[in-house]
Amino acid sequence: MTIGDKIRIARTANGFTQKELGFLVGLSDDRIGHYEIDRRTPKDSVIEKISASTGFSLEYFTDHKLTSPINVMHVLFELKQNYGLSLEMALDKDGEPILENGRHVYKTTIGNMELDKRVSVWLKSIESIKQMRQENGNDLDKGMEDECLKWEGQYPQSLVARSEAMLRNEKNNRSENPSD
């Protein structure tokens, strides 16, 4: 994903037009458009303004150069070395590799406890988003990916926002269904 893709995702996840985001960061809509199609590369100061305007963390806008499977493999190697990432092929009861849609399924273990906790919170948050959408009668397919991308882009601040939303939901449920 390029920096332009990330800017577009952050903008659309907040419901901003290019003109609105441009206004918030002090640039033209054309300039925002050029960033989004990677015709121009924003300066760090512009990324900081986009981050502040969209609520997406600065870390989200980091360009990890994941442009090829080889680059991704090197990131996996680094995760293994620095965080104890372990991958193994998932096997069925007969010891044969499990395939889904023609692709191998892998089991992942994270050796670093701090990272393990953060990944666990991430997966639980995605499940929470699904559950809240179902409880509110929202279509799981429509908007689910955008909501998840927004949560991921705003991480770790999204943890606070999600917790506040869950508390409000719980408070509303208690007021609607008081016990005794």
Q: How would you characterize the overall build of this protein?
A:
It is globular and about 60 Å long. The chain has eight helices and four strands; from the N terminus they run H-H-H-H-H-E-E-E-E-H-H-H. By secondary structure, it is mostly helical. The longest helix is centred in the C-terminal third of the chain and has 23 residues, at 113-135. It is 59% helix and 8% strand. It has a two-stranded antiparallel ribbon. Strands 2-3 form a two-stranded antiparallel ribbon. It has three domains: 3-61, 434 Repressor (Amino-terminal Domain) (Orthogonal Bundle); 66-111, no CATH class; 113-180, no CATH class. Helix 1 (3-13) crosses helix 3, helix 1 (3-13) packs across helix 7 and helix 7 (144-154) packs across helix 8.
Percent range for β-strand residues: 5-15%
Whole-number tally of structural domains = 3
List segments where confidence is low: pLDDT < 50 over at least 5 consecutive residues. none
Helix content: 55-70%
Largest sheet properties? 2 strands, antiparallel
- The total of helices stands at 8
Query: Span between N and C termini?
Result: 53 Å
Based on the structure, what is the oligomeric state of the protein chains?
single chain
Order of helices and strands: HHHHHEEEEHHH
Radius of gyration: 20 Å
What's the β-strand tally? 4
The helix/strand class is mainly alpha
**What is the spatial order of strands in the main beta sheet?**
1-4
| C-alpha geometry | globular
Mean of the pLDDT scores?
86
